[in-house]
Amino acid sequence: MSQPLADITPSEMMTVTAARALGNGTTCFVGIGLPSEAANLARLTHAPEAVLIYESGTLQTRPDVLPLSIGDGELCETALTTVSVPEMFRYWLQGGHVDVGFLGTAQIDRYANLNTTLVGDYREPKVRLPGGGGAPEIATNSKEVFVMVKQSRRTFVKDVDFITTVGFGRDGTARDNMHPETARHMGRGPTRVITDLCVMRPDPVDHELVVTALHPGVTRDQVIDATGWDIRFADTLETTAIPTAEEIEVLRSLKVRTERHHAGDTV
Amino acid sequence: MSQPLADITPSEMMTVTAARALGNGTTCFVGIGLPSEAANLARLTHAPEAVLIYESGTLQTRPDVLPLSIGDGELCETALTTVSVPEMFRYWLQGGHVDVGFLGTAQIDRYANLNTTLVGDYREPKVRLPGGGGAPEIATNSKEVFVMVKQSRRTFVKDVDFITTVGFGRDGTARDNMHPETARHMGRGPTRVITDLCVMRPDPVDHELVVTALHPGVTRDQVIDATGWDIRFADTLETTAIPTAEEIEVLRSLKVRTERHHAGDTV
Amino acid sequence: MAEFLSLHDAVARFVENGATVAMEGFTHLIPFAAGHEIIRQQKRELTLIRMTPDLIYDQMIGMGCVKRLIFSWGGNPGVGSLHRLRDAVEHHHPVPLDIREHSHAAMACAYEAGAAGLPLAVLRGYVGSDLPKVNDQIKSITCPFTGEELAAIPSIRPDVAVIHAQKADRHGNVLIEGIIGVQKEAVLAATHSIVTVEEIVESLDTHPNACIIPGWAISAVVVAERGASPSYAHGYYPRDNGFYKTWDAIARNRESFAAWMNDHVMNARPEESTR
Amino acid sequence: MAEFLSLHDAVARFVENGATVAMEGFTHLIPFAAGHEIIRQQKRELTLIRMTPDLIYDQMIGMGCVKRLIFSWGGNPGVGSLHRLRDAVEHHHPVPLDIREHSHAAMACAYEAGAAGLPLAVLRGYVGSDLPKVNDQIKSITCPFTGEELAAIPSIRPDVAVIHAQKADRHGNVLIEGIIGVQKEAVLAATHSIVTVEEIVESLDTHPNACIIPGWAISAVVVAERGASPSYAHGYYPRDNGFYKTWDAIARNRESFAAWMNDHVMNARPEESTR
C-alpha cells in the first residue's frame, strides 16, 4: 500500500528511493549520514540479507539505531566480526568484496565527480570541508557507486572545485583506457545519483549525468533550477515509485529510535 | 654446582651453551629443533622473561614440552596471543621487534652463510633439503643471529652450495655498504655459532668465523678435523663454562616430557 | 618493556616539542586524557598524525600545539565541521597549520607499512583524485610483473604513538577489543608509545587471537579511567554523542572555546579533565 | 554466498585439472580430507601453492596430481624430508615437478597482497640470498621516497583456495581459531574457495574480533569431521605427531607409499579417509 503522497517529505522520498536501489544480498560499503539511513532502511525492509560494511572495520553489521559516527559501539556490537581498519581497506574494499559503495557528498558535478575537500583554492580555501575519508577508494574499488545528496545549485555544480573522489573525471573519460590490471579491479563508478528531486544516471557513452526519473510531483523546471549545469533528461523519463506505508513507517521509527538514542547526556 | 663433566653429552653441552647466550628479557624468534630446545631451556633456567616467538604466529609462548612442529597446539595454548602468519613476518619480524633470531642449518660456511636448500646443483640436486622457511628474513631482520648446529666436515664447508640465508656473503662483505634505509633495518647478522665442540664468532673486521671458546675437554684438532676450511682460533681461547647440575636436570626432564608427549598415537 | 607511569610523567618523558605524534582510535578509544595532558604541558610545534582528527585534535590545534596535520577526514563525525581546525586552515589562527591530506585507505596502508618496517605503502588508490596534485607525498611505483602503476605514499613512522585501550595486565600487556582501528599499527610503527588504559588487571583472560600488544612493544602504560571520554570504551562506557553535538557550539567561536578549555582542561588535574 | 556441498561435489565443481590451488593451514588445520578427495578424483597438472607442503602435498605429489609447486619450506616438520617431494625433484617421479621457491616472509606477504587485490608484494627480503638467482619471480622495486631497493614478488591469486576450520554457522560464516596462519588471506585471494569444517553450529558465539570469514566470501562449505587429521583442530583434537613420524617410513619407498595410499585414500570413502 502506498503512503499518501502529501504525507511524504522530499527527504523521505530520497531515502526510500535510495534504499530500493540496494538489492537483497548486496555487499554495501556504507558512508555515514544519508547513505547509512538508506542502507539500513533497505536492510529493515526488502533487503534483510544486505551486508553492510562500515569503514571502522565492522563487517556485516545490523544496527538497531543509526550510528552518529562511523564507529559507534552499536556497529561493533551487531557485527558479524570487526577487523582492523587496514584490513578493512586492504582485504575487503581493495580486495574486491564490495558490490556497492554508497556515498554522500558536499559537491557533485556533471561527471559525478565528488568534492568533500574544500570550496575555493586549496591553499587559501573559502570553506574547508572534512576531506576524503574513505570515499576516494570506495568509489574506485567498489563494483559500482550510488551517490545520495540533496539537490541545489550550490551542490550540483558544472565542475567541482576539487575532485576528492572521481566519478568519470573532468571530461567523462577517467575510467576509460586503463591498464588492464587496474581495469580489472576498478568498478563501473557511479551508476545512480539519488536526490530529493530525482534520479540521475550517467549516459552510457559520454558519462554525463542524465535525469532518468523524477520523484512524484517534481517538475523538470524544479530540477533545472536546482542544477548548476544544463541538465539533460532521458527520452523516456520515469516517475519514481511512491514509497509504501511500510517503508515510511519503518524509516520514521528508525529515525525516532536514533534520535532518542543519540540525545544521550549533554554538557 | 657443576654437573660432572663425564656425565654430559656433547649435545647437552651445545644446548646449554646456546641457552646461556640468550639473555633474560630477550625477544627471540625461535627456529624448530635445536634452537627451540635451547631457547626453552633458557626460559626454564636463567631467562624466565625471555620472549619466545615462533613463525606460526605464536607470540610470547611458554610451552611445557618442546613442539615437534613449528605450529603445535602447545605453542598457541601457552602464548600471550597468536597472530596471523603475515602479521608475524611483517609486523613482528620485519617491524624490528626481534632481538635474536635463533637458527639451525644443514650447511654453514666460513662467512656463516647457511644452506638449507640443497646439495649439488639447483636444477639437478643430489640432495633436496626442505628450503629456507623463515630463515632468510629472520637472519636479516633480527638484531642478531645465533646459529646452533652439530659440527662435522659435511656441515661446516668452505663455501655453501647455495646461500639460502645470508651470514656475511661469499666474501664477508654482504652487510657492508648497504643503502642507509636498509642498513637501519638490517641486524648485525650471526654473532655466535654454537656447536657441540665449540663457539665461533665472526671476526670483527673480515667476518670470517673464528673459534673463541672450546667446550671442556675438546681439543683444537677435534675442531680442525670437523671443519671443512682452515679454521682460525682466537688469540685468547676460552673454555666454555661447564653446565650446572640444574641446567642438565631441567634439560633432561624437558626432553623426557617431550618424548612422552610426542609418542602419541601411531598407526 | 613497558614502564607504568603517571599520565603527567609519560607525556613529559616521551612527547617533545616538535615531535611527530600519532594519537589513534577510530571513533572508539580516542585518547582524550592524554591529549588534554599534552595541552596542559603546552607542547608546541607538533606534527600530528591521525586518520580522523576528531575533537581531540580540534582541541590541540585550537590551543596552539600543532604546526602540521597529516590526516584523511577532519570533521566532527555526524555533526559537521571541526571549527578550530577550520579556523587554523582558513585564518591561520592561533598559528598557521600546514596540512598533508590523504585518503583513509592510504593512511591505513601507511600505518600498516610503518608497523611492517617498510618505507612506503603501496595501494590501488587516488585514481582520478586531485589529492596527488596538492600532496607531494603521493607518488607511484610500477609493478614489475604487470606494469600497473600503483599509488605509493611514505609509511607512517611517528616519534610517539598514543592510544587508549581497555586494560593491561601487570606485565604491561595491553588488550584492545571492539573497533580496533589502527591502534596496534600506530604503536608498532612508532619509536615510543604511550598506552592509557581503563584499568590494570591480574590477567587479560581472553581468547587465543585477541588483539594484544605485548608490554615489551610499549614504552609506557598509564592508568586513565574514562581516558577516552567523550569517545567510548567498548565494555566500559558508551560514546557521549550528546557532547559531540554540544562541541559544535563550543568550538564555533574562539572565546567560548578558550573558556571551555580553561575550565575543563587547563585548570583540571589529569584525573578530572576527561568527561 | 557459500553453498553447503559434499566434499565430493565441492572438489568436483571447483578443482579443475590444471588449476592453481592453495591449500593452507600452518601446521594447524591442514585440509587433509579435501586433499584426499582431490587425489581420489585423480586431478592432474595442478599448480599447488603452500608455504609448508607437509604430508598433504607429499601425498598429492606422490600420486601424480602436481605439475608445479610454489612453496617456502618442504619438510616433514620435526621429522625430516618429504620423500615423495624429494623423489619428484631428484628423480622426476612419478612426473617431473617444477618448483618455484620462496621464503616464508615472501609467501606470507604474497598471500597478504593477493587478499588485498594487489599484483605484487613488497618486502625487505632475500637480502644476500641465492633464491632470487633460481626464481625469476623474485624482482625488486625502488622506494620513491628513500631510494631503497626492496624485494617484490607476484601476489598469490589462486583459482581455488582450500582450508579447514573449526566451524561454520548456518549462513556459512566460518570461525578459525588458534594458529590462524594465512587461511583468511588464501580464501580472500582466490577466485573460488572451499572451506571444510568440523561442524555446523547454530551460532559461532564468539568475541568481537574473532577471525571469521563471512559466508558471502566463500564458495563452498563442507562438513568434514576430523578433516584436518593427522594435523589438528584447536579445541577438537590434537596433532597426531606419532603419525607424522610414521609417515617417514611409509613415504620413503615408492611401494609402501602406494600401498598406504591405496588402503587409506583410494579405497576409502570421503568420510573414512582421514585419520
Automatic annotation (TrEMBL), chains C, D:
Span of the signal peptide: none
InterPro entries: CoA_trans_fam_I, NagB/RpiA_transferase-like
Keyword Transferase: yes
GO MF, one annotated term: CoA-transferase activity
UniProt superkingdom: Bacteria
Alphabetic keyword roster: Transferase
Pfam family, one: CoA_trans
PANTHER family membership: ACETATE COA-TRANSFERASE YDIF (PTHR43293), CHOLESTEROL RING-CLEAVING HYDROLASE IPDB SUBUNIT (PTHR43293:SF3)
Protein name: CoA transferase subunit A
Annotated source species: Larsenimonas rhizosphaerae
